[in-house]
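FAQ: What does the model actually see?

It sees only this:
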Amino acid sequence: MLLKLALRNVFRQKGRTAMTLAAIVFGVAGLIVSGGFIQDVFIQLGDAVVQSQTGHVQVFRKGFFERGTRHPEKFLIDDAQNLSTALARTPGVKQISARLSFAGLLNNGRRDQPIIGEGVEAEKEAALSAYLKISEGRALNADDAFGMMAGQGVAKSLGLKVGDRVTLVMNTAAGALNTMEFKLVGVFQSFSQDFDARAIRIPLLAAQQLMGTSGANLLVAVLHRTEDTDRAHAAIASRLGERPLEARHWRQLSDFYEKTVQLYERQFGILQFIILAMVLLSVVNSVNMNVFERQSEFGTMQALGNRPLEVFRLLLIENALLGLIGATLGVIAGVGIALAVSAIGIPMPPPPNANIGYTAFIRVVPATVASAFFIGLVATVLAAVFPARRTAKTPIVDALRQGV
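And it is asked to produce this:
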């Protein structure tokens, strides 16, 4: 009986109901759109980190992550090839590639440039480095015994063009000085401007010859699915046994990604609070006006024998119905906007510390949609609690007097 009466009352005041529904729809749709945009930022930034630098999981000697940049020759994995073969059998792993890190000087015949570099397995890195943009030339391939790729910043600093020859000077693992000439085959851009300003890549075998070693510093695991990162990381870590090695997944390796996620999550939390407050205030205002105009109606209900609790429940049910309808319409509107915008894409400028823009989308995330629906519904019900409680406590005589 109360439900039927509440439904009739909701649509009796069409103008005020429309205003209340508009506030709820706007709030729910805003949460879905903003949440979907932020989730897209997380996903695209994560993919850029994984597919341009870190891979999904890296294995290295303990201490390499903290001190290996300056002295990579002290943190070599001697049995890198055998270990790589063993780890490749881990469920979920697509491939394992070895990298040998080094630091040195790059000379173009006129001046020197301090660099950090990696010896890489060209064919495997081609699958891993999908987010590396080749701005000039091409990527390394298996035939480039003495080929080199340089970051855009390095090439610009030394005035290098594809086809130029440069000399790489570095220390061997034994501490001696060694040099080798390379031909620049390509210039790349990653998502990180700092990385491009000092990074080069050469074939793994050439790096091993320069350093006088057959080992590697890193084993980089690429997975079939990023969602399996935690499971694969645990499995790889367990396979290392008693070796003095450790495994870290890409989120642990990218401090920039973690800080970006924390920043956006705080911003989204503030946005959720603002939208919740906006919906609450809009609905409270509408409910107060509605209740004030219907005081005599509620007084008549109580005079006919309805208890104050029934009046209170009636108002809560009315607003629950409003919240349910508004949240449902908000979900439909939010998902529709997300799909429409994603079909076009949003051109975005380069993020901080980056030099490549990207196309953003609004992802329909079930958890975000459910959260927005719940916030819209609960905010509407909460907004009615105080006015309903006050109305239920109003004496019958005072309520009836409002209609005189």
